[in-house]
Design goal:
Layout (H helix, E strand, L loop, with lengths): L1 H8 L2 H20 L9 H10 L4 H8 L3 H4 L8 H16 L1 H9 L1 H33 L8 H28 L4 H11 L2 H14 L4 H22 L2 E8 L2 E3 L2 E3 L3 E7 L6 H10 L1 H7 L9 H8 L5 H22 L2 H10 L2 E2 L7 H36 L7 H25 L8
Antiparallel strand pairs: 1-4, 1-5, 2-3
Length: about 425
């Protein structure tokens, strides 16, 4: 990775892209340090830290700690990610959007992207309003009135829109996927505070040295596992039939149909975690139930440290993995495309037998990928339960995002360097 960056730095054009990306990330970090007016950030930070088992903690990690400080970039890339997922699902459900994405070409992609932007602003309005109401109800605001509400909500909306714009600029003029890199920078900025928290726990005696070693070894094992699975794929052999056009023969070559093991990325974990945290989040805003009541039993059962929570969380990850794999990889459509292009899988007739075989392989690959995601998500919970550190509950998600984006960015650099090694036809 370091060697790739050094080689890329030696190419003037790539050096400009790296510097541009770094400047955008610097602006993002500066924005994360500017709080919106009329908010008691100290009181808000204390309140968010108490809700470590709720969905608010997940938002805080994804925003790089900006959510707990109510900065102008507090919403971060969450509205854009949510809108992208919604539009992706609607593209499958609504035939007009499906035709636009499939047959519209570059113009269709631009229209889908424009719809995603509008949806991002709409979601940012809802989340900004909800965030304001939360702070108002718990007395975190230093002012009141319509003007205070307008300033706070508009600041959140403008910040989220600006983050979306910065992500698009990185994608166009920088290195890699802009939104992913901003998300990567936000999560990575939390590492010093996590290390500091671990150090203070060691000094106070709440964490022993073997617990710290277990946490470090667990993170290293996750990084190795994620790196290995990220590039893993199942390749189905494809043979193309020979055909004669005039005096020339076309086709006859062999190819493969690649099928990634982790096809859906980190989305199943994010979705499963958001749904699994609904009851703990609601319980955090209600009065604590008395011991011995049904409410007390329910809250303890769905706590992030409970065995029931881990089992439900694991099963939901598997379910969402299959759901996203089905959306992204359509065996019937692939089978039809192979048939149209004169391709076939050796040993299987074109049409339905080919589609059935691809579906069978897809189910097996998805199962392995889903179990992998479940292990990555559950392992930090188990380690956190052993060492009694609740902040590790979303560690698996963070590690997958950080490692995945790092590998993706390095691959983008390598591909651009490879392109520049080829000589032009006129040289």
């Amino acid at each position: 990775m370091i060697q790739t960056i050094k080689k890329a730095w030696g190419i003037p054009e790539l050096r400009k892209k790296i510097v541009f990306t770094a400047l955008i990330l610097l602006i993002f970090r500066i924005g994360n340090a500017i709080p919106v007016p009329y908010v008691d950030t100290g009181l808000l930070g204390t309140y968010i830290n108490q809700l470590s088992t709720t969905v608010l903690s997940l938002y805080n990690v994804m925003s790089g700690g900006a959510f707990a400080q109510a900065t102008i970039f507090a919403l971060g890339v969450q509205p854009y990610i949510n809108s992208s997922i919604i539009i992706q699902l609607l593209t499958i459900a609504i035939p007009a959007l499906e035709r636009m994405a499939r047959d519209g070409g570059e113009e269709g992609k631009k229209k889908i992207q424009s719809i995603t932007r509008y949806a991002t602003v709409a979601i940012a309005i809802l989340q900004g309003w909800g965030y304001y109401v939360l702070m108002k109800n718990y007395g975190i605001l230093t002012g009141s009135g319509v003007w205070v509400a307008l300033v706070i909500i508009v600041s959140f909306i403008a910040g989220s829109s600006f983050v979306m714009w910065m992500g698009e600029q990185i994608t166009e003029f920088g290195i890699g996927n802009g939104i992913s890199i901003i998300l990567f920078a936000g999560i990575l900025s939390r590492v010093p505070s996590m290390v500091g928290s671990m150090g203070s726990s060691l000094r106070s005696g709440t964490m022993t040295w073997w617990m710290a070693v277990l946490v470090v070894l667990g993170i290293l094992a996750l990084i190795v596992l994620i790196t290995w699975v990220n590039g893993a794929e199942r390749r189905i052999p494809v043979q193309y039939a020979k055909r004669q056009v005039g005096r020339k023969m076309y086709g006859g070559q062999s190819s493969t149909l690649p099928m990634k093991v982790n096809m859906s990325g980190v989305l199943p974990i994010i979705f499963a975690q958001s749904i699994a945290m609904i009851i703990p989040t609601v319980a955090a805003f209600l009065p604590a139930p008395e011991k011995g009541t049904f409410g007390y039993t329910l809250v303890n059962a769905v706590d992030s440290k409970s065995v029931l929570y881990m089992i439900v969380y694991f099963l939901m990850i598997i379910a969402f993995s299959y759901f996203y794999a089905t959306i992204q990889f359509n065996p019937v459509e692939i089978s039809n495309n192979l048939k149209k292009n004169g391709g076939f899988i050796p040993g299987f007739r074109p049409g339905k037998p080919t589609a059935d075989f691809i579906k069978k392989v897809l189910n097996k690959v998805t199962l392995f990928g889903a179990i992998y995601l479940g292990v990555v998500a559950i392992l930090p919970l188990l380690i956190g339960k052993i060492v009694n550190v609740s902040s590790l509950s979303i560690g698996g998600t963070s590690v997958i995002i950080v490692v995945g984006v790092a590998l993706e960015t390095v691959q983008a650099l390598e591909s651009q360097m490879l392109m520049r090694q080829y000589k032009g036809f006129l040289e």
